[in-house]
Amino acid sequence: MRGSRWGREKPDRPRRGRWSPAEVARLQELYGLRDDESIARELNRPVASVRKTAESLFPMATRTGPWTAKDVLALKRYLGATTHEVIARVLGRTPEEVRKQITELKRLQSARRWTQEEIAELKRLYGRRSDEDVAIIFGRSLESIRKQARRLCLAKDKAFLRKLGGASATSMPRWSADEIERLTELYSSYSNLEIAQILDRSVKSVVSKAHHLGLRKHRARLQEMGRENVSRRYDKHEKHGEAR
What we know:
The chain is mainly α and 244 residues long. It contains 15 helices and two strands.
């Protein structure tokens, strides 16, 4: 028997019966962002029960009309993570309305400078969304997304590639002894991005290999990284203050 945040013990078999308020809240939080099977595993519920409960929480609506800025942000949050039909349920729209709005968003492309907030969000999303969906989410061209991804040494998650059936086409080559030696030399003092650029690897690959090897950053480097993060947050607040 294993422990669970949904109860003292997690039984071997999926739970059945009435859903607790905590389970319902977690389903509302995850639905549309993770697949039904993944949600079912976390909640220890049958997949059929997850789908039935989700359908009762998010009934298919026929809402039409203008999209607010809040509606568009919500659409971008789910875009690429699930189907148009599920997005429609979550937003209380029809699938046709969702498809029309996505078509409208495709026409909006900006060439403005990337902000630190956008870069952080790109790092979070890039591995689990297609380049086309990421371009729509950020309102940028495919070329801009791919250029920024190369600069940041980003890569798609292996699970995402397996889902698309294209993992073999983009998998990274095995680490050579020379690369491992170089990684070991650099890791303590250089940022993961700098190492990725030097070794022509993705940041994910660098982090994963370093973790496997048990490598650690020097304390001075960690402190420097902390100061850099504080500086970025300070600059962000300063800009917001000037805009008021």
